[in-house]
Specification:
Rossmann fold, seven-stranded parallel sheet, 7 strands, globular
């Protein structure tokens, strides 16, 4: 039985949408009827992702952007609105993981990871918030991580970015909820993607990208008098 197209007419911007969690979220939103702006850096991979979506949802546009570049971020928001209309749903999924001991990390590592995982979310939220405020409605969903709650060796910069993202999400939720805008964070555990190496782990026991996409759909279909501020998602068995 086909799903109800409850997001028909809604415009969703998804970053990091060419593979993994972002692509699974795009499929979920397409199934729910949303118009999609899919953002990534790799044009060929992004076009293949859009082609795989077919005609399941509404309109689909692909947009290339470097989320470490503030000008690209501003252009991304503007192009989405020009092509599809005002952004109703922003899914900040793009992320970068580099894992090394703090003593081996460089300032470049810090800047690149923090710019991608945290600053880009700040700038994109700023870009779409004025329109959402004027319409007094909107969803912003940030894909965080259980690494934003737990420390592990080699994770100093990545964990810092995700802890910061959780703080940013919680404060943005307080700033924007008076305008009917719901800000949520999803914190997955280990997901079976090529995002980071999974040596000596059983990928069959890991979360799947579709598990995170399911939570996105749940958040977006929550009753209007409430919002889900944060979800922690773990595999049933430890990999």
């Amino acid at each position: 039985m086909s799903e109800k197209k409850v997001l028909t007419g809604k415009v969703a911007l998804v970053t990091g949408a060419s593979r993994g969690i972002g692509l699974a979220i795009a499929h979920r939103l397409a199934n729910l009827g949303a118009d999609l702006a899919l953002c990534a850096r790799d044009r060929k991979r992004l076009e293949r992702a859009a082609s795989a979506l077919g005609q399941r949802g509404g309109r689909i546009h692909t947009l290339i952007a470097d989320l470490t570049n503030a000008a690209d971020i501003r252009a991304l928001a503007q192009q989405t609105e020009q092509l599809l209309g005002p952004v109703d749903i922003l899914v900040n999924n793009a992320g970068l993981g580099r894992f090394m001991p703090i003593q081996d990390s460089t300032e470049t590592d810090w800047d690149t990871i923090l710019d991608t995982n945290l600053k880009a979310v700040f700038l994109l939220t700023q870009a779409v918030a004025p329109g959402m405020i004027s319409r007094r409605t909107g969803h912003i969903i940030n894909i965080a991580s259980l690494a934003g709650k737990n420390a592990f060796a080699g994770g100093s910069i990545y964990c810092a970015s995700k802890w910061g993202l959780l703080g940013l999400s919680a404060c943005a939720a307080e700033d924007l909820r008076p305008y009917g805008i719901r800000v949520s964070a999803i914190c997955p555990g280990t997901v079976a993607t090529d995002f980071s190496p999974h040596s000596n782990k059983d990928t069959g026991k890991m979360l799947k990208p579709e598990d995170i996409a399911h939570v996105v759909g749940m958040i977006l279909t929550e009753a209007p008098q409430s919002f889900i501020s944060e979800v922690s998602l773990r595999p049933t068995q430890k990999p």
